[in-house]
Amino acid sequence: MNEERLTVAEATGHTDESPPEQTEQAEQSPKRKRRGPGPFTLLLLPALVTVIGVAAFLAVTGGLPNPWPDDSDSKRSSDVDVDPSYVPWLRKAASACTVLDPSVLAAQIDQLSGWSDDTDELSGQKGIAAFTDSEWRTWGKDDDGNGKSSPREPADAIMALGRQDCSLAEKVTGLRTEGRVNGDLVDLTLAAYATGTDAVTKAGRVPAEAETYLAEVHKLLPRYEALDREDPAGAGGAAGALLTAPVSPLTITSPYGSREHPLTGVTKLHTGVDFAAPQGAQVVAARRGRVVFAAPTSAYGNRVVVDHGTIQGKRLETTYSHLSALETAVGQSVEAGTPIGRVGSTGLSTGPHLHFEVVLDGYYTDPQPWLVTGG
User: Fold this and answer.
1) Same domain, 213 and 258
2) For residue 310, what pLDDT band results from cuts at 50, 70 and 90?
3) What tens digit of pLDDT does each residue of 352-375 get?
4) Which of 29, 97, 127, 270 is the most buried (most CB within 10 A)?
5) Cα(91)–Cα(77) distance, rounded to whole angstroms?
6) Which residue from 121, 374, 352, 353 is spatially nearest to 244, judged by alpha carbons?
């Protein structure tokens, strides 16, 4: 996920200038004639005039164009400074209500914690979304399916903040419909988050005590606007879901995350999600793409890998493992729903199921938020 940035180092030179010759006073040599410009002066003068002209031009125009544009002014979606594994969770959380955008959630988290999950000992706030224990009891859930609900789990925290914001959005929408408050729904929602709905209701608008918080969030929003752009390939479904179900129904038997392997006994990252399915059930491509691998392997058994191109500037691939049969070949173009194999138990497997992975820019990431139906 880490992207290397090239630093342009500017070298500065220094030119020693000879002090100008001092003209002798007229009273010391009244008969000496004034000398004309020497050859050095004749060579230097045109260059000096040019330098002065360029300096004047720069002063008027504000300088020459920078061949290395400022990233803050030309942010592409791939430059959004967010852990790529958070992006589908941000989109999924924002899809719960029409008022909320992924960029708003991201800007809130940036303002709250700067994406740091350190605990604030003074306030008791925990995780990237800065939840207190009492707030977490209201909004927290085990959204990533790893068996625990914690504000220090980024996926859980993002989804909980989305639920909280959407609840507030529903309340201020009702207040505005009744004519009790006035203003932009996003601003009213953020104000309710900062000061509570009672303060918003009493003010009839964004209360003064919430204005600083709103200003800080709005200042951060441009960093994350690319998160709101629709995916050009368009997979349909919820805002955060870009993949259709590879097998139906989606019944999870082992989620993404650290676990002890049932056969080897080794505890390590379970790089995908296991979906229960009967032997021979149809497995389909989760999105349009091109098959880049389709062959038997020792651990994954019969395995298919589909390259879906770039999503938000990141390379997206999906994998389908332990298949009983391969129904595709390397180089084949597929659409969402194209049959590619059959559920099986080949490789290191205890029974028929589909091991499904999402690989983003070479890194495994939780498949659940990418799917149209979480299962």
Assistant:
1) no
2) confident
3) 999 999 988 777 888 988 886 543
4) 127
5) 14
6) 374
